[in-house]
Amino acid sequence: MLAVVPLVAGCESGTGGTAVPSSVAPEALFDSCTLPDSAIAAAGGDPARKDDNPFGVPRTGWRGCRWGSDGYALRIFATTRTPDEFRSNDQLKDLRAAELPGRDATFFLQSAATESNNCGVFYATTQGTIQIYLVDDGLGDELADPCGVALRAAKAVDQWIPR
């Protein structure tokens, strides 16, 4: 689990002169539940299988939704955690650059899951760090390329994600 840190609004320099939020107030987080159904379908999620309470209980510093799909669950969250906090989280492994145009995006795997059934992408925005994560639903065959699926999902919703 990521560490909880005090939040102070502000920006710090990012790569290429882009302003990157150093932290975001919880009430200002992007709400992925507002993504259009067409974007979710293009990302591989089933809009009819939307879960707007993916944590079961409110989780401080996080906002997002989960969508069922054929073979996996698609989760799109915004968090007050920074990309540096993700990078220093020992529960994440195999961090590497993700080719998402216009974003300083990073792939990750959760260490508690097997490599063949999970992958995610995270990057900073003005409304929190976005995490697009998928995990095998355990009901069928393992995904052949979970990071490829996660990247296609990220590209499909990118135009609706704040900069």
Q: In short, what is this structure?
A:
This protein is an alpha+beta fold and 163 residues long.
What does this protein structure show overall?
By secondary structure, this protein is of the alpha+beta class. The chain contains three helices and nine strands; from the N terminus they run ββαβββαββββα. The longest helix is centred in the C-terminal third of the chain and has 12 residues, at 146-157. The protein is globular, with a radius of gyration of 15 Å.
For this entry, give a set of tags.
163 residues, alpha+beta, 7-stranded antiparallel sheet, 3 helices, globular
Draw up the topology in text:
Layout: E1 10-13, E2 19-23, H1 37-42, E3 50-51, E4 62-68, E5 72-79, H2 83-87, E6 92-98, E7 105-110, E8 118-125, E9 128-136, H3 146-157
Antiparallel strand pairs: 1-2, 3-4, 4-5, 5-9, 6-7, 7-8, 8-9
Estimated radius of gyration: 15 Å
Our measurement of the CA-to-CA distance between the termini, rounded to an integer number of angstroms, reads: 26 Å
Summarize the main sheet: 7 strands, antiparallel
Uncertain segments: 1-21
Number of helices: 3
The secondary-structure element order is: EEHEEEHEEEEH
> What's the quaternary structure here?
single chain
Compute the average pLDDT. 83
Shape, please?
Answer: globular
Number of strands: 9
Helical content class:
10-25%
Helix/strand/pairing category = alpha+beta
Beta content comes to 25-35%
For the largest beta sheet, what order do the strands appear in spatially?
3-4-5-9-8-7-6
